[in-house]
Each structure stands twice: as structure tokens, then as C-alpha cells.
Amino acid sequence: MFEKHCTICGVEVKKDTAIKRFGKYLCSEQHAEEFVVREQQRQNEESRRDRRGGCC
Ligand SMILES: [Zn+2]
User: Is the pTM for the entire model greater than 0.85?
Assistant: First the structure.
């Protein structure tokens, strides 16, 4: 059984058309790109936070 949903819009994705990014499924190239951008921004913010609060 293959039941996955687009991380951006929540639509059901099909095995043959699904796009996978960072372990998540996306319905289209457009949403895949959107998710990648979002994820990169999130990771940037997290690494900034880590550096700031990284003191022992
Ligand atoms: Zn989508």
C-alpha cells in the first residue's frame, strides 16, 4: 500500500508521480521546490539558534 500526502497542500500523492525531498513526499515539482526552500530556511534558522545558544 502506498498512501502519502503532499507536505505542502496535503493532497494524496501517487507512487509514480510522487517527488521526495528530505524524506517527505510532494505532489509536484512546484511544491517540491517550495518545500525545499522552506526546509532550507528552517535549517538556517535552527543553525543560527544553535550557534547562539551553544555555550556550555
Ligand atoms: Zn502539493
Answer: no
